[in-house]
Amino acid sequence: MQIKKIGIVGWRGMVGQVLMERMQAENDFALGDYTLFSASATGQSFDGKMYGRDFGKILDAADINALKKMDVILTCQGGDYSKQYYPLLKRQGWHGYWIDAASALRMEKDSTIILDPVNMHVIKQALQRGEKTFVGGNCTVSLMLMAIQGLLKEGLVEWISTMTYQAASGAGAKNMEELVAQYDWVGRGIQKLNTAQSALELEKNVTSLIRANQIPHDHFGYSLAYSLLPWIDSEYEMGQSREEWKGFAETNKILQTTRPIPVDGTCVRVGVLRCHSQGLTIKMKQDIPLPEIEGMLKEANSWVKLVSNKKDVTLTQLTPAAISGTLTIGLGRVRKMRLGESFLNAFTLGDQLLWGAAEPLRRMLRILFE
Ligand code: HSE
User: Fold this and answer.
1) Cα 209 to chain center, whole Å?
2) Which of 144, 162, 246, 352 to mutate to test the pocket of ligand 1 (most atoms within 8 A of CB)?
3) Which atom of ligand 1 is nearest the CA belonging to 246?
4) 275 is catalytic
5) 262 confidence band (pLDDT: 50, 70, 90)
6) pTM over 0.85
């Protein structure tokens, strides 16, 4: 199938904007004819100067006839849109490719979770089978797989325990704004007291402010500022959160493992803007010398950056402050653990809006063009 017409839905949301910026940076817009669809700005013109292109009139994201003309629909509009419009389009005989940022269709039988540096073979097999549904993975899972691809590729991983430190952006744009508003609200509350405070008085005042019902909390429901939230997404089975369940389910779907690799841990929201971090315990199938392990890890793909297990470089290079807004997958604190020689400790982080969301989508479009 010759790919020519691409429709983009949900391009004004946070993931959509990051996607558009990356597409412009990589000159993806030169590859085909793009139409922008919107649920709220139908009929307006969007000159797209910021993306170096005139996109013409914005079409209605609910206009099935216009959507049907597309060879590819790339959506960052959210799961409700995917669940409503994709089946509708298929029922009307549409055979185009559907590339989706939302999780709604990820675990469907004929969906492929896309993370091409890690599972290009899986994507290619799906294309050969004529499959059309390609969905970005959960950000935490994608970032972890990019980081430890070197070990997974060699079949060396018996199981993984992952303790996450997830940024506010993973919960949505409004949540990220709310985190900043919470810190601001507390800062102003402290200033208003207008008295010199000892460290302990300061702590007491801050704690009373984050417990106050007036702190902005419409989106998180609680204060994330000066605190953390050790539950992400809904309650699932066996005491897991849905985010924790995804670790196992999506890892094994992305890799198409024949013997599933157990993945489990606790997912925690922390007061960071857009970088997800994770502390990993990896049980290796064999006891391999550390230099060999490091060699495999750093050679696995072009984005993983192995930082040596030293304090100064770790604190300058392996933080959300250093990684945010880049495509680098930071990996460090790699060492054998006192638990035993086949237990590996690692810390990894990446921008959840880039490799965790937008980047695999635009790369899938490239794969279709190729
Ligand atoms: N579910 C993730 C989070 C983000 O809440 O951080 C999207 O993969």
Assistant:
1) 31
2) 352
3) 1
4) no
5) very high
6) yes
Closest residue (by CA) to atom 4 of ligand 1?
170
The pLDDT score that the predictor gives to residue 195 is: 84
What are the pLDDT digits (tens) for 46-64? 777 788 888 889 999 999 9
The pLDDT tens digits for 84-134 are 999 999 999 999 999 999 999 999 999 999 999 999 999 999 999 999 999
And the tokens for 306?
A: 């192995």
Lowest-pLDDT range of 42-56, 228-242, 329-343: 42-56
Tell me the per-residue pLDDT of 170-206, one tens digit each, with 9 for 90 and over: 999 999 999 999 999 999 999 999 788 899 999 999 9
Alpha helix positions (H), the chain? 14-25, 64-68, 79-91, 116-128, 139-147, 149-153, 173-193, 199-211, 242-255, 290-299, 311-317, 320-323, 359-369
42 pLDDT above the threshold of 80: no
Of 84, 54, 59, nearest to 70 by C-alpha is 59
Tokens coding 179: 């985190």
**Neighbour-count burial of 154, counting CB atoms closer than 10 A to its CB (0-12 exposed, 13-18 middle, 19+ buried):** middle
Alpha carbon distances (Å) from 210 to 169, 204, 270 = 20, 10, 14
Query: Helix and strand tally (H, E) in the chain?
Result: 13, 13
Pick left, alpha or beta for residue 27 (phi over 0 → left; psi -120 to 50 → alpha; otherwise beta): left
Say which of 139, 217, 267, 275 is annotated catalytic: 139
Q: What is the distance, to the nearest Å, from the Cα of residue 17 to the centroid of all Cα atoms in its chain?
A: 14
Per the annotation, the verdict on 276 as an active-site residue is: yes
Alpha carbon of 264 to those of 188, 242, 275, 278, 279: distances in Å? 40, 11, 20, 12, 12
* CA distances (Å), origin 52, targets 26, 70, 100, 325, 363: 12, 22, 24, 21, 19
Task: Report residue 307: phi and psi, to 5°.
Answer: -100, 135
Q: Which atom of ligand 1 is nearest to the CA of 233?
A: 5
Dist. CA 63 → ligand 1 center (Å): 29
Cβ neighbours of residue 236 closer than 8 Å, sequence gap 6 or more: 242, 244, 245
| Burial class of residue 130, CB neighbours in 10 A (0-12, 13-18, 19+) | exposed
